[in-house]
Amino acid sequence: MARALVTEPKIMLMDEPLSNLDARLREQMRVELKKITRAIGVTTLYVTHDQAEALSLGDKVCVMNEGEILQVGLPQEVYARPKSLFVAKFVGEMNVIRGTVTDRGLVHSPVGKIHCPLPPGLSSGNEVTLAIRPEHLVLRNINEQLKDALKGKIITKNYLGDAALLEVEVNGITLMVKFAGDADFQVGQQTLLVLPPDRWHVYA
Known about the structure:
Helices cover 20% and strands 40% of the residues. By secondary structure, it is an alpha+beta fold. The protein has a five-stranded antiparallel beta sheet. Strands 9-13-10-11-12 form a five-stranded antiparallel beta sheet, with no helix packed on it. Strands 1-2 form a two-stranded parallel sheet. The radius of gyration is 21 Å and the shape is globular.
C-alpha cells in the first residue's frame, strides 16, 4: 500500500486485501484503511465479499452478481432498503418467507398471516417473498396479550458478546431474532414473536 501511495495515484484498487488476516486484526485494519484513504484523499475501489467490511469502509456500496450491478448507494440505504431479494440476503442477515397476497396489506404465509405494506400492482393471489432482518423481530413473554403475535419456541441461542442470536421455530419455520447484548430467553422456552409491519421488505 505504501508503494502504491508514494506515486500519488488518482485512484487505488484493493482486491480483498484483508482476507488473510485474523478477525481482530481485520477490524483494526478497517479503521486504519479508512483513516489513510481519507487523509490522503485518494479515490479507492475496494472489492470484498465481507458485508461488514463493505458497510464500514464504503462511502458508497455497489452490490454485484455475475457481473451485473444490482444496487449502488450509501451503506445505510443498501442495508435498510435493498432493491432486490439477492441484495437483501447478501448484505447482512435476513429472514425470508414465501407467501400469497390475500388482501391489501395482508399476506398468508407458513408462519401465519402477516400484515405489511405491499408494493403497487400486487393483488390477491400474487406470490411474494417477504424479508425482515433479525434485529427487527421482537420476542415477548408467552403470557402477554398481544395482537397479531405468533407463538414460537426457541431452539437455539448463540451469545456473541455484543449481541445474542436466537432461532425461533414458528409452525415449522425457523426465524432468527437478534438482540443487542444478551437476552433473557432460553432454549426450549415458549415465546411470542412480534412482526413489525413497517419492517418488511416485499419482493414479487
